[in-house]
Amino acid sequence: MSQILLLVEQKENRRLLLEWLAVYYEVLLPHSTENSEEFLPFNQSFDLAIIDGISLKRHWQWVAAQKQAEHPVCLPFLLITSRSDVGMATQFIWQSIDDLIIAPIEKIELQARVEILLRSRQLSLTLKLSHDQLDRTLQTAQELNEMKTSLLYMIAHDVRNPLNFIIGTTQLLTKYKLTLTEEKTQELLDKTQAAAKGIDQLLDDVLLLGRVESGQAGFCLLPLDLAKFCNELVGEFQSSLKLKPQTDRVALIFVNHNSQSAMASLEVSLLRRILGNLLSNAIKYSPPNTEVIFELKLTETDAIFSVQDAGIGIPVADQGRLFDSFYRAKNVGRIPGTGLGLSIVKKCVDLHGGEITLISEEGVGSTFTVTLPLAKPAKKQISPATP
Length: 387
Ligand code: ATP
Ligand code: MG
Fold this sequence. Notes:
By secondary structure, the protein is an alpha/beta fold. The chain is built from ten helices and twelve strands. Among the domains are: 3-105, Rossmann fold (3-Layer(aba) Sandwich); 217-381, 2-Layer Sandwich (Heat Shock Protein 90). A hairpin with a 3-residue loop joins strand 9 (291-298) and strand 10 (302-309). Helix 8 packs antiparallel against helix 10. Bound molecules: adenosine-5'-triphosphate and magnesium ion (MG). Adenosine-5'-triphosphate (ATP) binds next to helix 8 and helix 10.
């Protein structure tokens, strides 16, 4: 129901207006209409004010401030005045009001003017809403555009490096295949394979991010033995760690806190993204000869995974933006990365209706903890997950 503020000092006019308007609208009266000096501050919102000449003279500054505060939405003021006063009205008064009625007031005229003014307000409110929506759409489009540009740069940079490496090693292998030792050949092949896997992973991440952002990520809950799943994942990481010389290695330790089997219904491919990214970060940002501890705990309602490292840590100033795509902390130095991993982790956790928290201190280490509810994902799309 529209709200109409009455700022009318003339008693008879006020009584009449109240009687006529209260049938269709909510009528607001300031505390003291007897003495309008006292009606301010009036800070309740309203859709239309009906004001008489005396009130307008006293409160023109307040009227101007109200109109200004609502700009560009129209906040109409309807002036009730006598025929003799109309001639005395200044230019300024005409700028402060939107329409006028000459007393004695006629009910039918009043109703028509009130309705027209309320409609103008409604229209301007609708216009403002569409304008705001358009603004938001434009902003999203700009963000998407910026993201697309960064994506292109990132792909150009992060695909070209391993690709150059693959081209270089294959040329080397072709040229020196007869003179290279078997051990050296194997080393080059392993590195080539790792570089190709890196590109594959990057493309997977980019595609997954696109699917999640456009709401097309498949979501298929399957019963899963979490302890087995984590053990296998840790095994995969340990085998790739073994490719490094012993002295450069980080030790990856898995601790399962559940005595019984840890069965849960979760989305396997998303869970793999979450844990894979956290583990690879922990390993990547840790100096050699330190430990990464990966823990799993199941409660009645949640699966809780934590990954703790004694690595470079994350400066407090960067912690708030880590989950933004392409954001990297200032202390990464020459450690490679695209800044995509954690934004994917966050989106996968959100899809599960879970949460992720971080405790980190620069130079000391970081612990990421992911809590996933066992029953209710935030967004349940029952289409099979595409690889
Ligand atoms: P990639 O997309 O290849 O994973 P990335 O590791 O740089 O690249 P994210 O995984 O999104 O990107 O991580 C974002 C940033 O958060 C990293 O660049 C790094 O600054 C910081 N970070 C994440 N995990 C850790 C960690 N365990 N220790 C220290 N810094 C971390
Ligand atoms: Mg990462």
